[in-house]
Description:
The chain is mainly alpha-helical. The chain folds into three domains: 1-48; 59-184, no CATH class; 186-217. It is built from eight helices and no strands. The chain has helices at 2-11, 21-45, 51-95, 106-122, 125-134, 140-159, 166-181, 186-217. Helix 1 (2-11) runs parallel beside helix 3 (51-95) and helix 3 (51-95) packs across helix 4 (106-122). The protein is flat, with a radius of gyration of 21 Å. The chain starts with a helix and ends with a helix. The mean pLDDT is 78.
Amino acid sequence: MMISAMLIFKGLKNLHLGMSNVNSFLTIFMIGAAVWMGTFVFAKSLKRKDLGKSTFQMFSWMQVFTACGFAFSHGANDIANAIGPFAAIMDVLRTNSVAAQSAVPPIAMLTFGIALIVGLWFVGKEVIKTVGTSLAEMHPASGFTAELSAASVVMGASLMGLPVSSTHILVGAVLGIGLVNRNANWKLMKPIGLAWVITLPAAAVLSVAGYLVLQAVF
Length: 218
């Protein structure tokens, strides 16, 4: 239901389908009921198998949907963070004035989406390994919980227009699982926490330096 709410209230509304709030909530409950029935039938089919293997198999499939939900929330916030300044600059260059709001060209959204996939494919493997296996021992059920929690927080921030880091939020969710299971890798949290502290001022300094260089050149 949480994932379907994300899609309907944050995604499908941009298609202007004319769905009222009542229709949206009915659709959410129908999707939730269908997913519950599917999960119930699937769980019944696994009843005779070993409980551990059954749980592992069921949540492995369910985690696919929470991963998609987290990816959706990531695009709704992190990609918006990146494309916001770009859209503002393009609008200033096009209109030669500063407006309160700027239209985002569809080609820009497509380009940034492709860039996200390319970055994940070629560079993101180490981060996936760190968050997925090194920070805490994860089971499909705990991974399901962490991804759903992180997706909910990121989407809530997106609905309020707050730019947040989905990576930091997911690390917090995984760390919460590690705290409950008492297997959190606190040694790894030290460099992660240090990176959180360093990256903000480092980005600010580089931004100022780049701006001053461009201002001197042009």
